[in-house]
Amino acid sequence: MSTYNENAKPKVTTSRLLEMKRRGEKIACLTAYDYTMATLVDGAGIDLILVGDSASNVMLGNATTLPITLDEMIMFARGVVRGVKRALVVVDLPFGTYQGNSKLALASAIRVMKESGAEGVKIEGGAEIRESIERILAAGIPVCGHLGLTPQSINKFGTYGVRAKEEAEAERLINDARMLDELGVFAIVLEKIPSALAARVAREVSVPVIGIGAGHDVDGQILVTQDMLGMNRGFKPKFLRHYAELGELITDSLGRYVDDVKSVDFPSDTECY
Ligand code: KIV
After folding, report:
1. Does residue 231 form part of some domain?
2. Is 204 found in the same domain as 98?
3. Are residues 227 and 250 in the same domain?
4. 253 and 195: one domain?
5. What per-residue confidence (pLDDT) applies to 5?
6. Backbone angles phi, psi at 28, to 5 degrees
């Protein structure tokens, strides 16, 4: 059982995450896409809540993250922000809202900040989106980078396999991480890369490195909440730990409700006015 007391801890800020890295305190991050889940995730003491574009898969049933729109991301983010008291809330800029056009990138980031009340944005990529990152940062909007497996580029990669196993790609990733650090991002997500490479990046950059499938020698971890709660039953990659089997629990509970309604066991006399 968690010993977390929500009244005892102040709001998490980007500088607080940096202090955590400096003193070696690991940063616990999860996703949320709606008010109810955000209250639960925040209440558990999670430091950073990401309104990830994985909402495209998890909430909208798409096969990839590409179809989700900025309007949809903002709607999900609004609910999350209303449910959060302590965690830092960061929102993914979706595919097509920042690549190749830094003015569009800034306009997208401003919409997220103004319309959802979130505290930062995350964008995928390195040198190729440098101008977009610079422009968003110049407007005073905190940016989280994302390197390694970047799902918005799935059509370029062709698979969701481990990235940067070859030296050339690993070198590129290290250079991109250094560049993000120098530009002033507040954190970098590393997805599905060899642990030794992730550890090297975490040692070399000044900002927190948050891993997903990137081993334990990084500054924090992030998972998709529905995945770690076992709600997405067919999905169990090597990096994922199930902390519950909520998929089974929910289906079982709903089945019992169906039985009770059919047999008129529900509602009982005590559940009637
Ligand atoms: O969209 C998302 O949920 C993410 C995390 C998996 C890092 O980007």
Report:
1. yes
2. yes
3. no
4. no
5. 58
6. -100, 120
Can you say whether the dihedral through the CA atoms of 50, 51, 57, 62 is positive or negative?
negative
**Per-residue pLDDT tens over the stretch 18-70:** 999 999 999 999 999 999 999 999 999 999 999 999 999 999 999 999 999 99
Tell me the percentage of the chain whose pLDDT exceeds 90.
95
124 C-beta closer than 6 A to ligand 1: no
Is the pLDDT confidence value at 3 over 90? no
197 lines ligand 1 (CB under 6 A): no
Whole-number average pLDDT of the chain: 96
Q: Based on the fold, state whether residues 213 and 258 are members of the same structural domain.
A: no
Residue-range definition of the domain harbouring residue 258: 245-273
> Are 141 and 258 within one domain?
no
pLDDT digits (tens, 9 = 90+) for 171-189: 999 999 999 999 999 999 9
Mutate to test the pocket of ligand 1, among 41, 92, 221 (most ligand atoms within 8 A of CB): 92
- pLDDT value, residue 2: 54
Same domain, 136 and 234: yes
Q: State which ligand 1 atom lies nearest to the alpha carbon of 65.
A: 1
Residue 227 CB less than 6 A away from ligand 1: no
Say whether 204 is catalytic.
Answer: no
Q: How many domains does the chain have?
A: 2
pLDDT confidence of residue 1: 52
CATH code where residue 225 lies: 3.20.20.60
Distances (CA, A) of 225 to 49, 50, 52: 10, 10, 11
Alpha helices (runs of H) in the chain, residue ranges in sequence order? 14-23, 35-43, 55-58, 70-83, 102-116, 130-138, 154-157, 167-183, 195-204, 225-228, 246-262
Atom number in ligand 1 closest to CA 222: 7
